[in-house]
Amino acid sequence: MQQFKALFLKEWRESVRSFKLLWIPLVFILLGISDPIMNYFMEDILKAVGNMPEGFMMTLPEFQPADLLMASTGQFQSIGLLVLIAAYIGVFSRERQNGTATLIYVRPVSFTAMYASKWMVASIIAMISAIAGYAGSMYYTALLYGTVDWMKFFAMLGTYCLWLLFVMAVTVAMSAAFNTSIAAAVTIVIISLGLFIDSLFGGFWSVTPWKLANYGIALLTDSVLLKTYWLTVLMVVGLTILSIVLGIVMSRKNMRQLKI
Amino acid sequence: MEALSNIPWGLIAPLLVLQFVLATVAIVDIVRIHETRGPKWVWIIVSLFVNTLGPIAYFLFGRKNQ
């Protein structure tokens, strides 16, 4: 526990000093508020861009509040996750490369505490960012379109935080298992390509980990069966635990890769 | 001038302020840091003139730890 506290503080300071605590939430807020504003001014934007033929008529869809939150989630899932993965893919592998790890590994340090500290800090930053982003999105949605049921909104937020815990567990585990560039490739294939493939062929099955964020949004409009929702949650929790175990085992095994 | 006053600034201002803060943080960091990956002046120009994506690109790819 003592070790975990010290390592946690070290990781936290590193995130603060490299401004990650500041700029990642800012990026999420910008992503979150851009969609409600863009859709609200869409008519003006089309008019200003011009080049529409004479008498051109277009009926824009009437957006419900849940649609705007869904659009923001789409932004977080594509750009936001890439930013988070890129920011935290080096936590293990870069330490091994630049020699910081030698300073830590000469002490009898527990790899469980090390993995847990890195994963916790990455997850906390990710969750702060997501909460800030959704707060910005919800603020503008409430201002321009109307509100949603608050209990359901918080359920959605909790679901998304669970998904981020899973993403960060995979990111840190891959960083423990491979060197930085391979780890980045593997994580992006697992998370981003997985999301893409699931959105293409996802109609054929109902329970995959990549559907969790969409089911969280579907909670807002009651368009998901609670049984499938909870099965997905269970699956994601299981995979998170699996990634944690894999990460701890691989970080111990890769101690040999250390450059001195 | 009339076009300018028609814009609902109350709605747009937060967006502009956030972009400004992001760019400021990036530029302060570039100036104070010992060394960046690639020349410093390029990163300053990129952070200044590419909205949102410029500072993100600097923090992800241009920043050297230690």
From TrEMBL, chain A:
<feature type="transmembrane region" description="Helical">
    <location>
        <begin position="228"/>
        <end position="250"/>
    </location>
</feature>
<feature type="transmembrane region" description="Helical">
    <location>
        <begin position="153"/>
        <end position="175"/>
    </location>
</feature>
<protein>
    <submittedName>
        <fullName>ABC transporter permease subunit</fullName>
    </submittedName>
</protein>
<feature type="transmembrane region" description="Helical">
    <location>
        <begin position="68"/>
        <end position="91"/>
    </location>
</feature>
<feature type="transmembrane region" description="Helical">
    <location>
        <begin position="21"/>
        <end position="42"/>
    </location>
</feature>
<keyword id="KW-0812">Transmembrane</keyword>
<dbReference type="Pfam" id="PF12679">
    <property type="entry name" value="ABC2_membrane_2"/>
</dbReference>
<feature type="transmembrane region" description="Helical">
    <location>
        <begin position="182"/>
        <end position="208"/>
    </location>
</feature>
<keyword id="KW-1133">Transmembrane helix</keyword>
<keyword id="KW-0472">Membrane</keyword>
<feature type="transmembrane region" description="Helical">
    <location>
        <begin position="119"/>
        <end position="141"/>
    </location>
</feature>
From TrEMBL, chain B:
<keyword id="KW-1003">Cell membrane</keyword>
<feature type="transmembrane region" description="Helical">
    <location>
        <begin position="41"/>
        <end position="61"/>
    </location>
</feature>
<dbReference type="InterPro" id="IPR027379">
    <property type="entry name" value="CLS_N"/>
</dbReference>
<feature type="transmembrane region" description="Helical">
    <location>
        <begin position="6"/>
        <end position="29"/>
    </location>
</feature>
<dbReference type="Pfam" id="PF13396">
    <property type="entry name" value="PLDc_N"/>
</dbReference>
<keyword id="KW-0812">Transmembrane</keyword>
<feature type="domain" description="Cardiolipin synthase N-terminal">
    <location>
        <begin position="21"/>
        <end position="63"/>
    </location>
</feature>
<protein>
    <submittedName>
        <fullName>PLDc_N domain-containing protein</fullName>
    </submittedName>
</protein>
<keyword id="KW-0472">Membrane</keyword>
<keyword id="KW-1133">Transmembrane helix</keyword>
